[in-house]
TrEMBL record:
Matches recorded under SUPFAM superfamilies: Class I glutamine amidotransferase-like (SSF52317)
Domain of life assignment: Bacteria
Organism listed in the record: Terrabacter terrigena
GO molecular function, one term: hydrolase activity
Taxonomic classification: Bacteria, Bacillati, Actinomycetota, Actinomycetes, Micrococcales
Name recorded for this polypeptide: Gamma-glutamyl-gamma-aminobutyrate hydrolase family protein
InterPro entries in the cross-refs: Class_I_gatase-like, Peptidase_C26, PuuD-like
Keyword ATP-binding (UniProt): no
Keywords: Hydrolase
Gene3D superfamilies: 3.40.50.880
Length: 247
């Protein structure tokens, strides 16, 4: 018997999709780059659409089938979920994703399932922990480097915090693809693990967890797959720890 490839759930949208003669059919969608990175790192990718019945119980049931989770990028988290008034720049909320991903954030923490948050996913993790978001970064930093134009990724440098798990993966820093106008302000239970030069928090991690890490940038867009390899390795260890094998 050998260890099974770890199964990684990737959260997704339900959006109108078109193919062939079918137009605007509701589909469960996530950019395929996420799937490709997980598969290339040795995992099995599973798309996890938002659920209307999502709660902690459903999340625990789902995690019984998964060895790791990616909370994927997407629209802004509803400010009402962290008790703040809505800034004019905030995008229309997606309660289906908010509810599902907050439940997954809580459940992965309770079960210590390996978790990687990406952009919105980092913000979901902070809100689930009782944190607060900065709703429009350009108001503070005075530039749009983190999100230069619609559907256009920025690129900037991040500095990792010495001694963190992220520093062990990426070294002292990296140039990263970026597309966000919000960031994490407070993050109970998480330690900062990377910063942008303008003072924006770019990554955080839970030092108590086996693997619970979040980045504000979009590693799926670039060629640097080290974060995905680290997640899949942690998920493999998690799977082995609960005795999941294949013939």
């Amino acid at each position: 018997m050998v260890e099974a490839r770890p199964v990684i759930g990737i959260t997704a949208y339900v959006e109108p999709a078109s193919w062939g003669r079918w137009v605007d059919v509701p589909g469960a969608l996530v950019p395929y780059r996420y799937v490709g990175h997980v598969e290339d790192a040795g995992g099995i990718a599973v798309v996890v659409p938002p659920r209307p019945d999502a709660d902690d119980g459903v999340a625990h049931e789902l995690l019984a089938r998964l060895d790791g989770v990616i909370l994927a990028g997407g629209v802004d988290v509803a400010p009402e979920l962290y008790a703040e008034e809505r800034h004019a720049s905030v995008q229309a909320s997606r309660p289906d994703r908010d509810t599902t991903e907050l439940a997954l954030a809580h459940a992965t923490a309770a079960l210590d399932v390996p978790l990687l948050g990406i952009c919105r996913g980092m913000q979901v993790m902070a809100v689930a922990a009782g944190g607060v978001l900065e709703q429009h970064v350009p108001d503070r930093v005075g530039h749009n480097l983190h999100s230069p134009a619609p559907a256009t990724y920025g690129n900037h440098h991040v500095r990792t915090v010495p001694g963190t798990r992220l520093a062990g993966i990426l070294g002292d820093g990296a140039d990263v693809p970026s597309y966000h106008h919000q960031s994490v302000l407070t993050h109970p239970g998480y330690a900062p693990s990377a910063w942008a030069d303008d003072g924006t928090l770019e990554a955080m991690e839970d030092p108590r967890a086996a693997f619970r890490l979040a980045v504000q940038w979009h590693p799926e867009v670039g060629d640097d797959a080290r974060l995905f390899h680290a997640l899949v390795a942690a998920a493999g260890a998690y799977a082995a720890g609960r005795g999941r094998t294949r013939g």
